[in-house]
Structures are given as structure tokens and as C-alpha cells.
């Protein structure tokens, strides 16, 4: 390769402050602003492209530089059917399409907007010559990470007038870069929220002076066993469809309701069904707290097609989802069967390949299902004797199918009750693949604990569960509840608090 001097990209001053859009969403997302001045030159690590193939187009007016070793690593990781391999192939296809659009010499750079990504107005540069740089003694020169650091250091020396920034998902890589005096950042464009505390909870406490504010303007009526309230005022601006509101004050009757209509400056609240009472038990299960009551209202509502439940260990997510599913499959005949799946991510060491059919291979991952079915079968058939309990258990088992996520693409579920457990370990792309399997008459329930993410490179802000909760809030046929109180045992509750 002939030694040539890399082109100097003109230091174009910024005209307007930029706010990069979140991946896979048309809405604008708040993002950390870059300072005014020349365009930054971002050097992408391989793990960024394998994490989000569309990351090439997420840097707005800034330029991107790809070291040759990054292309080598993409090539080494393109084989296989894993999510990483698919992302590597997608990134390679995007790079090939960009290079082909230029058609000739790519050394002057490739406009990132060439494929129709109008928000990406920067330029993509490939490494077309050796970029020697002296790294401290003791750092292995042949390691891929160190080669990328060498490129960043060479670019910084060659372009002192520009900010050269390494973007990597690898924490140790960023630490090494900063130790060498190089700027390094995490790739944060895939984050739905900067702070998990801001995640939509699905519930809202009405102010203490709520009834005083409403005064004589509130309208109420009875219909179908529910009481409806039409309210107005400033509180309406904070409401979303299918959000639960509650009013609890000493000496006054409580109000537990769901937002069923929003029109201008008015909203209609409908009181919820009381699943804390034994007469409304769902497969023998009653709600033990306010949030569980709200969750059962969503799970038992045929007009709600998509339910997300978040909460710490022992809050009853799986138990309530299964109880509602069994009632609607076996008693009400609303759905034909329950399909349950989960992300097969190990907490510790992997146990290797498992023998048997698809359902048998998924068996070890479904311990939570077995535990809850044992409880539900015992509670529902306790008056039928040993034979009755065995028959009930067999009937329940025959209506529950355990499926692996690996074989979901291309499927369509008709009139099914689908439960996705441990959804916090799914990426937004995997979540989209699963949700789009739903056909007519299917209800889909996603559950997870954002404090127990076991997947590398996923955080509370970028988890697929966070992604769908944020996207589906306010949809008329979807609902979310964050369960706050554990009900498993006093030991589990205390452990969740102190450990």
C-alpha cells in the first residue's frame, strides 16, 4: 500500500447544537451535547459495531475513523448464527455499501449520508496506511486492542487541532486509553434512559388535595360494575392511557383507578376490579398489595394485548402471569394454550449442551415455572384428593408449551397467551423479534428484574425490557406495572434490602 498522507478533514464549526437520535426510534432523545468547535473524529472499537450495526450513522455531523484491525475483527466474528455474528455481518454490509457508493478511491473519505441516513452528515475514513505510534514499554504490540490504541494515538498526534475520541463498549479498553492520555467514551446512543429511576412505573399517586382541586367539576357514573370519573385540571397532563392512579388519605375512602380515556384537558378514570378479595381470586391467587392488584387487572383484561411487569425478586411476576394465563386458557377458554420462553443466560458457568427435545433442553431454565405450577396446582386442587391433584397437574402441563427463543423467527402465534420471562436479558432487537410473533387474539406478557441483568454490554438503560416499557407507554392496548413490594418470604424480602 503506497504511503500517502490521510486527508485533512476541514474543521467545520458547528452551526446548531446536535442531539443524536436513539437507535431504532423516530423520536429524538436527549443526549450529551458536544462542545462547539471542529468536528470530532470518533475511532470506533469493533465491539461498538457488533453491539449496534447502525452505530455508523449515530454520530450526526462528526467523522468516524475505522482502523484496519477493526475490519479484521469483524471478518473473524461474522460466522455463526449468534446475535454478535448477525450484527457483524450487518455492519460489514453497511461498510461495503458505503464504499461501493463512492466507487473509486476511498482515501478521501466516504460521506455517511450516502445511503440515505440524512442525520449523519459526517465522513467515514478507513485506515489506508500504517499509522505508527509509540506505546509505553510493556504493552503487547500485537494485541488488537493495543493496535487500536496505537491508531488513536497516531491520529491525535497527526490532527492536534481536532478532538480524537475512542468509542468502545469495553471498560478496560477505555481505562487503558485514559491511562495513555487519550479521550475515550462509552457508546450510549442505544440507551433508552440515562437513569433507570426515570423509567415509567405505570402508577401515579394523586395529590392529597385531588378532590378539592376537582371541586364540583368532576363527573361520575356507573357502568358494567365499575365507577367512572371524568376529571380535569393540571393532573391530566401527567396521565397516560392505561396508567393506574390511586388516592389514599387517612379517614377518606381510597380510590384505585385506571386511565381509560384522554381527551384534551380531561381524562376518564375507571375503578379497578378488586383482586385482593377472595371472591375475585385468579386460579386461587389473590393480590397482596396495590401493585399486584393493578397487575392482575392488566393480565385479566382481554383488551390489553401487551403487558410488561418489572420488579425485584419475589414480587410475584411469574406467579400472577401464570395464574391469569391458566384461568383464561382453562376456565374462560379465551386462549388455546400458554407458551412460555425466557432468555437462556447463565448466572454462573454454562452447563454445556443438553440432550433431548426442545422442551427438554429448556427444562433446566424453567425452574421458576415448575415452582409456581407446583404452588398453583396445590392451591387449585386441594379438595379433590391425590388423584384430583394429579389430574389437575396433568391438565395444566398439557396446556403449557415451553419454547426456545432460538426458533422464534418466522413463527406466528394465534390465540395464545405468551409469557417472556427474564426479559431484562434481551436486547431491543431480540425483543422486537419476539413481540412481532403475536398474531390475532394473542396476549403477550414480558417480565423481568432490571437489577439482575446477566448479559454483557446490556445495562438498565439499554435493556430490551426498558426499551419496550418506554415505547409502549400510553398505547391503548398495552400496560405496565412496576411491582415494588416482595411477597415471597420475610427472608427473601430482607435479603433484597440488605444484600
UniProtKB/TrEMBL annotation:
Matches recorded under InterPro entries: P-loop_NTPase (IPR027417), PhoH (IPR003714), PhoH2-like (IPR051451), PIN-like_dom_sf (IPR029060), PIN_dom (IPR002716)
Highest taxon of the lineage: Bacteria
A Pfam family the protein falls into: PhoH
GO molecular function: ATP binding
Record carries keyword Ribosomal protein: no
UniProt biased composition (Basic residues): 28-37
Ranges of Low complexity composition bias in the record: 11-27
Sequence ranges assigned to domain PIN in this UniProt record: 40-175
Region (Disordered): 1-38
Family under the similarity heading: In the N-terminal section; belongs to the PINc/VapC protein family. Belongs to the PhoH family.
Protein name: PhoH-like protein
Source species: Tepidimonas taiwanensis
Amino acid at each position: 500500500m503506497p504511503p500517502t498522507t490521510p486527508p485533512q478533514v476541514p474543521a467545520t464549526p458547528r452551526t446548531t447544537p446536535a442531539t443524536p437520535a436513539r437507535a431504532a426510534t423516530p423520536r429524538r432523545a436527549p443526549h450529551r451535547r458536544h462542545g462547539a468547535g471542529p468536528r470530532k473524529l470518533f475511532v470506533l472499537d469493533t465491539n461498538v459495531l457488533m453491539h449496534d450495526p447502525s452505530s455508523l450513522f449515530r454520530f450526526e455531523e462528526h467523522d468516524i475513523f475505522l482502523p484496519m484491525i477493526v475490519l479484521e475483527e469483524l471478518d473473524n466474528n461474522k460466522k455463526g448464527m449468534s446475535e454478535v455474528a448477525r450484527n457483524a455481518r450487518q455492519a460489514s454490509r453497511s461498510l461495503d455499501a458505503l464504499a461501493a457508493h463512492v466507487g473509486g478511491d476511498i482515501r478521501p473519505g466516504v460521506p455517511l449520508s450516502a445511503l440515505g441516513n440524512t442525520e449523519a452528515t459526517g465522513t467515514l475514513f478507513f485506515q489506508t496506511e500504517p499509522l505508527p505510534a509509540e506505546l509505553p514499554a510493556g504493552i503487547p504490540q500485537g494485541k488488537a486492542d493495543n493496535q487500536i490504541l496505537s491508531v488513536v494515538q497516531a491520529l491525535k498526534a497527526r490532527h492536534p487541532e481536532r478532538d480524537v475520541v475512542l468509542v468502545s463498549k469495553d471498560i478496560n479498553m477505555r481505562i487503558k486509553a485514559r491511562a495513555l492520555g487519550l479521550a475515550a467514551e462509552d457508546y450510549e446512543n442505544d440507551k433508552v434512559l440515562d437513569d433507570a429511576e426515570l423509567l415509567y412505573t405505570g402508577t401515579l399517586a394523586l395529590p392529597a388535595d385531588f378532590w378539592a382541586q376537582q371541586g364540583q367539576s368532576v363527573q361520575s357514573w356507573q357502568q358494567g360494575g365499575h365507577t367512572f370519573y371524568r376529571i380535569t385540571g393540571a393532573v391530566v397532563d401527567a396521565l397516560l392511557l392505561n396508567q393506574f392512579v390511586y388516592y389514599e388519605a387517612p379517614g377518606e375512602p381510597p380510590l384505585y383507578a385506571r386511565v381509560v380515556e384522554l381527551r384534551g384537558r380531561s381524562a376518564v378514570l375507571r375503578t379497578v376490579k378488586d383482586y385482593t378479595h377472595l371472591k375475585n381470586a385468579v386460579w386461587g391467587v389473590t393480590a397482596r398489595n396495590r401493585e399486584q392488584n393493578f397487575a392482575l387487572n392488566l393480565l385479566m383484561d382481554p383488551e390489553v394485548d401487551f403487558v410488561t411487569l418489572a420488579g425485584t425478586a419475589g414480587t410475584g411476576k411469574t406467579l400472577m402471569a401464570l395464574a391469569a394465563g391458566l384461568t383464561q386458557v382453562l376456565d374462560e377458554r379465551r386462549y388455546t394454550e400458554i407458551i412460555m420462553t425466557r432468555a437462556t443466560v447463565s448466572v454462573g458457568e454454562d452447563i454445556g449442551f443438553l440432550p433431548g427435545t426442545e422442551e427438554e433442553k429448556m427444562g433446566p431454565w424453567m425452574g421458576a415455572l415448575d415452582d409456581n405450577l407446583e404452588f398453583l396446582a396445590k392451591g387449585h386442587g386441594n379438595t379433590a384428593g391425590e388423584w384430583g391433584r394429579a389430574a389437575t397437574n396433568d391438565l395444566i402441563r398439557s396446556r403449557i408449551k415451553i419454547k426456545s427463543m432460538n426458533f422464534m423467527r418466522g413463527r406466528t402465534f394465534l390465540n395464545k397467551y405468551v409469557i417472556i420471562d427474564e426479559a431484562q436479558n434481551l436486547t431491543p432487537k431480540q425483543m422486537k423479534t419476539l413481540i412481532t410473533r403475536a398474531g390475532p387474539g394473542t396476549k403477550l406478557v414480558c417480565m423481568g428484574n432490571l437489577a439482575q441483568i446477566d448479559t454483557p454490554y446490556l445495562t438498565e438503560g439499554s435493556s430490551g425490557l426498558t426499551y419496550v416499557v418506554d415505547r409502549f407507554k400510553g398505547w391503548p392496548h398495552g400496560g405496565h406495572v412496576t411491582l415494588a413490594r416482595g411477597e415471597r418470604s420475610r427472608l427473601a424480602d430482607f435479603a433484597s434490602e440488605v444484600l
